[in-house]
Write a structure and sequence with these properties.
about 0% strand, single chain, about 70% helix, elongated
Length: about 220
């Protein structure tokens, strides 16, 4: 479910918008795939070490052990690399979401599984300082707001669909705003928890599933 979703939208962005295109040559051979992975891993390490703004394409190429010309065969610019890193993160969290949703057999399962989700994202970033730096860069990027919003809406819709399947009396328009807010707030919750002492972080993370599972049960009860 869960994605990098903390941003301020200064203009209205249509929900149906798709993630921005990543301009790069698709790696068709194993060696090319390995090169792309090396570029992405190198960029992630450098962003973690120096911050996104301080890293150049030339430095990423040097870290990956390739010529500056080679990197442009796959990525047009640094923003394209950041977009691909974000896309891989979104894909990972969406797979996690769908796996958790498959285990939801009743509304009573929601709180424990939401707790698993927020703890999983917290563990992921607690053990990956470079990932946190990439995450921060994504949040700060105006160019990635559309991609981020699209992922948030996609993840929330998967949750809505599962809840309606469990309780057909639920209407999408009643449950969708809560699910969209939940996906958005999950990331903010993890960001806060990462900056707190462990005991305070765990208390905050425990509050997330209680609040949103309670709200969803309330809506489901009204729907009958």
């Amino acid at each position: 479910m869960i994605t990098v979703h903390v941003f301020f939208v200064k203009r209205r962005i249509p929900y149906e918008c798709l993630p921005m295109n990543i301009k790069r040559r698709a790696p068709s051979q194993e060696r090319s795939k390995e090169m792309v992975s090396s570029i992405l891993d190198s960029a992630k390490r450098l962003i973690g070490r120096h911050g996104y703004d301080a890293v150049s394409m030339r430095e990423i190429a040097r870290e990956a052990g390739i010529s500056p010309a080679s990197i442009y065969q796959y990525f047009d610019d640094k923003n394209a690399i950041l977009t691909e890193l974000a896309s891989r993160y979104y894909d990972m969290t969406f797979r996690m979401t769908t796996a958790l949703l498959a285990r939801v057999q009743s509304m009573d399962d929601l709180e424990s599984l939401l707790g698993e989700a927020v703890q999983a994202i917290h563990r992921y970033f607690s053990s990956d300082a470079d990932g946190v730096a990439v995450w921060t860069a994504v949040i700060a990027s105006n160019a990635l707001q559309t991609m981020d919003l699209s992922d948030c809406v996609k993840t929330a819709q998967a949750i809505v669909d599962r809840l309606i399947a469990l309780q057909p009396g639920l209407r999408q328009e009643d449950i969708q705003p809560t699910c969209q807010l939940m996906v958005h707030v999950l990331t903010a919750t993890v960001r806060m928890a990462l900056a707190m002492p462990d005991d305070q972080a765990q208390a905050l993370l425990a509050e997330f599933p209680r609040v949103f599972a309670g709200r969803i049960r309330q809506i489901a009860t009204r729907a009958g």
